[in-house]
Automatic annotation (TrEMBL), chain A:
Protein purpose: Catalyzes the reversible transamination between alanine and 2-oxoglutarate to form pyruvate and glutamate. Participates in cellular nitrogen metabolism and also in liver gluconeogenesis starting with precursors transported from skeletal muscles.
Broad enzyme group: transferase
Natural source organism: Callithrix jacchus
Any matching Pfam family: Aminotran_1_2
Associated pathway: Amino-acid degradation; L-alanine degradation via transaminase pathway; pyruvate from L-alanine: step 1/1
UniProt lineage: Eukaryota, Metazoa, Chordata, Craniata, Vertebrata
Protein's name in the database: Alanine aminotransferase 1
Domain of life per record: Eukaryota
UniProtKB/TrEMBL annotation, chain B:
GO molecular function: L-alanine:2-oxoglutarate aminotransferase activity; pyridoxal phosphate binding
Keywords: Aminotransferase, Pyridoxal phosphate, Transferase
Involved pathway(s): Amino-acid degradation; L-alanine degradation via transaminase pathway; pyruvate from L-alanine: step 1/1
One of the protein's GO biological processes: L-alanine catabolic process
Protein's UniProt name: alanine transaminase
Binding partners and assembly: Homodimer.
Length: 496, 523
């Protein structure tokens, strides 16, 4: 295990010995992991922020973090009711305070009763507080028009990411040609590629169709699957709906087609539905995979294995920092389900404040509750603003020459395609950078706007994109979009 | 079936209220009916089965929430349903969860947390100014001034600075660099992450990880999952569970036959054993790690739980530093702490940190990258950690109450530790080492041969058999020693000292009575 030459000379100079843990001796799978959303461009953004703080002059006065789906970091306010109930749970002395509405107090008491020692500070059981899992099941039933959900099939998690990793972990087996393959959309949210790299599973790409608003085509699934069978054992199919980074909302027919495909080809379905509350387009509607699966009847409904994920980080709540989430498993082998619980138990339990928050998300104030009106108003305001920002983004980008943007039907991002002049592409390659990374770095240096290059999510060869959130406040977003399109025009001119 | 399927395909029609009054589509109602009648014929084999699943996950065991705890859950349900038992409640003495057993959270901590959660309260006269100051400081360091934003993957900056300051104070001035601090989702998260990065190689060069026997079974579980090689070193029961470097040497030598031992894990104060390592012992271990080129993991989550007046907590970091530059510049060390234990008992918040020493800068980059995939640890847990490392100081409004509460909790734990040790040692056939620290008793039980045979007939480890019987007859749930590891032919169980004093006395008495009966029964 030789170190690099740089290492060795440094070591010699400092009289230090070679370390136990080096790039060469570390877990090679971990080394292969990449996660662009917080990758190199964000690190550069941090450096620039540091420089600004130190008074270094820049062509901009602030760095805009349009790289990550964090609504509250961009000024979105938390929902009052959620924070009231949580505060009451955290500090139950407040139950005596006149400054909290009665319904909030009732909720807090209900949650605390279900906690060990009536405290958020106790571990819960590893699948999450029983009462909250029951509430989640009821939420799912209401959402899906009455189709039953079993609380025993609901597992709370530390954000959706935690549960996605756990399910993928269960699926990875075999070696060489029989190694588990997992189909993921391109473009994808890079948690999937990162996790597959870490687990040493085989990533199998299926391309979404940019020309048709990022539609999912079963023929493409077929193509990907057939090619994959050459070198791995495909066992799972991941779908993100509404899509990240693409924002498309799948039609019901498409979901049925995917389910049929998964069933025929014996693929475990993972449905990442964290943006289920973020649907903006008038022609789009969210259909849960669970609901469609059940409504398709047997054999699908009783045999197709499915795991569906949700989170408190998105929607109208934006409670990213609390790391709340759940997975609902359908038709999972009972013995495997026990194994999953066992795996979760090693980490004891998901954060209890996050569980409490999730409870409020799945059972919000009812129309007869005192907090209902304010809750509704806040919720509608957030969603309406997001919808307006989605439309604005789409509009500005579509009008810009050299930039095209599919409709932002849902989620929180735009993923516009950018034309880059050949000289820029060449220069990027000389610098050892993906062309859209080069573009994004230049954008950052010139304007302070931080977005994530399309290469971080995957895209068809020879195409370039970036993912930008729609989260900054409306007027600020307008300015950003204008700055960005101006920069793109300038960039195009400069490298033509 | 066909008709049902056809109906279901039309499922998106107008909603009609179902017979049970809920508003649902008629198709959905049919779907429900169908689901209750599963076809008896040919269910095809599932994709994900015990045979096809990840074998490494299958190999994982975690006794603290294992079979005996599942059984305890079943019994609780039976009690709820009114089934008569020789007891009225199940006592969960299996897990180090203080608040679940009635310990009260620290007032100041919850005040600051409430202010952070619902900042409107900053205008309330019911909160002390020092709590508000802390809350404002935390919120200002959060994106959008809210606990609801993701933080940097390494954790909120000012909290890392506070952790570094805490470590420096704790270690008598030995400096800690905030850049070496990583906030984590409980200590378990940090431990798991570091082990993950360390594991490499194949066959005889597969990474070996030295762990104490008995150990906290997070270690064996993670090692299993990562398909690393577990290398056991035995703590010396006759010597108060002391760590003997000769035993480390033996373990490493034997391990080199079949793996590449790279990592040495220490739990101090110990879990389940409760021993607090002497400074000399820590120096010996560090020297050994230096000699053998081992990466050191120091699990120090019980650093605030030291009861024995003859014992003192010495952090590995401090001792390493004080051993001089040959060690302090070379030995790679990761130390872990948590909000779950100590006097705080904030298990549910999943707060923790690790401090890394002498890690290669490129490795630190890899570490942040790995952590970034999961975005960040829960920010409320980070805030809780901040208060733990930055508590009220003399002169501050909340200091007196804070001190009182802290001393009360720790005094209580110390009392219960002594009580437990003394009572167990009065029971014939039980021997309990001094509970110098942590939260557990790990008494040795001497089981008659007939009991061991009975256990084997039931295909259970003898101490699992014992613990199951204890659970069924008294409702007391403890974890068998086989879940933690022990020398061949010895039997133990781990019981927490967390129930309130009077209840603990009752529990101990019940265990005593049970044990005496058990000895008679299997004489």
């Amino acid at each position: 295990m030789a170190s690099s030459t740089v290492d060795q000379s440094q070591v010699a100079r400092n009289g230090l010995r070679e370390k136990v843990l080096t790039l060469n001796s570390m877990n090679p799978r971990v080394r292969r992991v990449e996660y662009a959303v917080r990758g190199p461009i964000v690190q550069r953004a941090l450096e620039l922020e540091q420089e600004l703080r130190q008074g270094v002059k820049k062509p901009f006065t602030e760095v805009i973090r349009a790289n990550i789906g964090d609504a509250q970091a961009m000024g979105q306010r938390p929902i009052t009711f959620l924070r009231q109930v949580l505060a009451l749970c955290v500090n139950p002395d407040l139950l005596n305070s006149p400054n909290f509405p009665d319904d909030a107090k009732k909720r807090a008491e209900r949650i605390l009763q279900a906690c060990g020692g009536h405290s958020l500070g106790a571990y819960s059981i590893s699948s999450g507080i029983q009462l909250i899992r029951e509430d989640v099941a009821q939420y799912i039933e209401r959402r899906d028009g009455g189709i039953p959900a079993d609380p025993n099939n609901v597992f709370l998690s530390t954000g959706a990411s935690d549960a996605i990793v756990t399910v993928l972990k269960l699926l990875v087996a075999g070696e060489g040609h029989t190694r588990t393959g997992v189909l993921i959309p391109i473009p994808q949210y890079p948690l999937y590629s990162a996790t597959l790299a870490e687990l040493g599973a085989v990533q199998v790409d299926y391309y979404l169709e940019e020309e048709r608003a990022w539609a999912l085509d079963v023929a493409e699934l077929h193509r990907a699957l057939c090619q994959a069978r050459d070198h791995c054992c495909p066992r799972a199919l991941c779908v993100i709906n509404p899509g990240n980074p693409t924002g498309q909302v799948q039609t019901r027919e498409c979901i049925e087609d995917v389910i049929r495909f998964a069933f025929q080809e014996r693929l475990f379905l993972l449905a990442d539905e964290v943006y289920q509350d973020n649907v903006y387009s008038a022609g789009s509607q969210f259909h849960s995979f669970k609901k469609v699966l059940m409504e398709m009847g047997p054999p699908y409904a009783v045999q197709q294995e499915l795991a569906s994920f949700h989170s408190t980080s998105k929607g109208y709540m934006g409670e990213c920092g609390f790391r709340g989430g759940y997975v609902e498993v359908v038709n999972m082998d009972p013995a495997v389900q026990q194994q999953m619980l066992k795996l979760m138990s090693v980490r004891l339990c998901p954060p209890v404040p996050g569980q409490a928050l999730l409870d409020l998300v799945v059972s919000p104030p009812a129309p007869t509750d005192p907090s209902f009106m304010q809750f509704q108003a806040e919720r509608q305001a957030v969603l309406a603003e997001l919808a307006a920002k989605a439309r604005l983004t789409e509009q500005v980008f579509s009008e810009a020459p050299g930039i095209s943007c599919n409709p932002v039907q849902g989620a929180m991002y735009s993923f516009p395609r950018i034309q880059l002049p050949p000289r820029a592409v060449q220069l990027a390659q000389e610098l050892g950078l993906a062309p859209d990374m080069f573009f994004c770095l230049c954008l950052l240096e010139e304007t302070g706007i931080c977005v994530v290059p399309g290469s971080g999510f995957g895209q068809r060869e020879g195409t370039y994109h970036f993912r930008m959130t729609i989260l900054p406040p409306l007027e600020k977003l307008r300015l950003l979009l204008e700055k960005l399109t101006r920069f793109h025009a300038k960039f195009t001119l400069e490298y033509s | 079936m066909q008709r049902a399927a056809a109906l279901l395909r039309r499922g998106c029609g107008p909603r009609t209220p179902g017979p049970w009054g809920r508003n649902q589509s008629s198709a959905a109602a049919e779907a429900s009916a169908v689901l209750n009648v599963r076809p008896e014929r040919s269910r095809r084999e599932r994709i994900l089965t015990l045979e096809s699943m990840n074998p490494q996950v299958k190999a994982v065991e975690y006794a603290v929430r294992g079979p005996i705890v599942l059984k305890a859950g079943e019994i609780e349900l039976e009690l709820q349903r009114g089934i008569k038992k020789p007891f009225t409640e199940v006592i969960r003495a299996n897990i180090g969860d203080a608040q679940a057993m009635g310990q009260q959270p620290i007032t100041f901590l919850r005040q600051v947390m409430a202010l952070c959660t619902y900042p409107n309260l900053l205008d309330s006269p019911s909160f002390p100014e020092d709590a508000k100051k802390r809350a404002r400081r935390i919120l200002q360091a959060c994106g959008g001034n809210s606990l609801g934003s993701y933080s940097a993957s390494q954790g909120v900056n000012c909290i890392r600075e506070d952790v570094a300051a805490y470590i420096t104070r704790r270690d008598g001035g030995v400096p800690a660099d905030p850049d070496n601090i990583y906030l984590t989702t409980g200590a378990s998260d940090g431990i798991s992450t570091i082990l993950k990065i360390l594991v490499s190689g194949g066959g005889k060069s597969r990474t070996g990880v030295l762990i104490p026997i008995p150990q906290y079974p997070l270690y064996s579980a993670v090692i299993s999952e990562l398909d690393a090689i577990q290398v056991n070193y035995y703590l010396d029961e006759e010597n108060c569970w002391a760590l003997n470097v000769n035993e480390l040497r033996r373990a490493v030598k034997e391990a080199k036959d079949h793996c590449d031992p790279k990592v040495l894990c220490i739990i101090n104060p110990g879990n389940p054993t409760g021993q607090v390592q002497s400074r000399k012992c820590i120096e010996d271990v560090i020297h050994f790690a230096w000699e053998e080129k081992l990466f050191l993991l120091a699990d120090e989550v019980y650093q605030d739980n030291v009861y024995s007046p003859d014992c003192r907590f010495h952090s590995f970091k401090k001792v390493l530093y004080e051993m001089g530059p040959e060690y302090s510049s070379n030995v790679e060390l990761a130390s872990f702490h948590s909000t779950s234990k100590g006097y705080m008992g904030e298990c549910g918040y999943r707060g923790g940190y690790m401090e890394v020493i002498n890690l290669h800068p490129e490795i630190k980059g890899q570490l942040v990258k790995l952590l970034s995939v999961r975005l960040c640890p829960p920010v409320s847990g980070q805030a809780a950690m901040d208060i733990v490392v930055n508590p009220p100081v003399p002169g501050e409004e909340s200091f007196e109450q804070f001190s009182r509460e802290k001393e009360s909790v720790l005094g209580n734990l110390a009392k219960k530790a002594k009580l437990t040790e003394d009572l167990f040692n009065q029971v014939p056939g039980i021997h309990c080492n001094p509970l110098q620290g942590a939260m557990y008793a790990f008494p040795r039980i001497f089981l008659p041969a007939k009991a061991v045979e009975a256990a084997q007939a039931h295909q259970m480890a003898p101490d699992m058999f014992y613990c199951m019987k204890l659970l069924e007859e008294t409702g007391i749930c403890v974890v068998p020693g086989s879940g933690f590891g022990q020398r061949e032919g010895t039997y133990h169980f781990r019981m927490t000292i967390l129930p309130p004093v009077e209840k603990l006395k009752t529990v101990l008495q019940k265990v005593k009575d049970f044990h005496i009966n058990f000895l008679e029964k299997y004489a």
